[in-house]
Amino acid sequence: MAISTEKIRDLIKKSFPQADIEIVDTAGDSNHYSAIITAQEFRGKSRVEQHKLVYKALEGAMDGSDGILHALALQTKIK
């Protein structure tokens, strides 16, 4: 299965409405992405906690063999 850049952005925006989000389909196959997310919600959180917040925002899109998003290289920043 595959997921679009727009769908990933929409899922993240629901949890982080004021975030700056940059998403790139790194392999051109709608399965391998990189994302840079800059959000206020990351303030005071460790990098692991920040990434967990993003994974939660993806609403299961990366959950094991049932996930529709195969790979996401994630970089988070504080706004």
Summarize the structure.
This protein is an alpha+beta fold and 79 residues long. It has helices at 5-15, 47-57, and strands spanning 20-25, 32-39, 71-78. It has one domain: BolA-like (GMP Synthetase, Chain A, domain 3, 2-Layer Sandwich), CATH 3.30.300.
Helix share of residues? 25-40%
Distance between the termini: 33 Å
Shape: globular
CATH class: Alpha Beta
How many helices?
2
Going across the biggest sheet, name each strand in turn.
Answer: 1-2-3
Secondary-structure-derived class: alpha+beta
Radius of gyration: 12 Å
Number of domains: 1
- What is the chain-wise order of helices and strands? HEEHE
Relative strand content? 25-35%
The CATH homology group name: BolA-like
How is the CATH topology named? GMP Synthetase, Chain A, domain 3
Q: What summary fits the major beta sheet?
A: 3 strands, mixed
**Mean pLDDT value:** 93
Number of strands: 3
Low-confidence stretches: none
- The CATH architecture designation is 2-Layer Sandwich
Could you characterize what this model shows?
It is globular, with a radius of gyration of 12 Å. The mean pLDDT is about 95. It has a single domain (about 5-79), classed as BolA-like (GMP Synthetase, Chain A, domain 3). It has helices at about 5-15, 45-55; strands at about 20-25, 30-40, 70-79. Helix 2 (about 45-55) links the parallel strand 2 and strand 3. By secondary structure, the chain is α+β, with helices and mostly antiparallel strands.
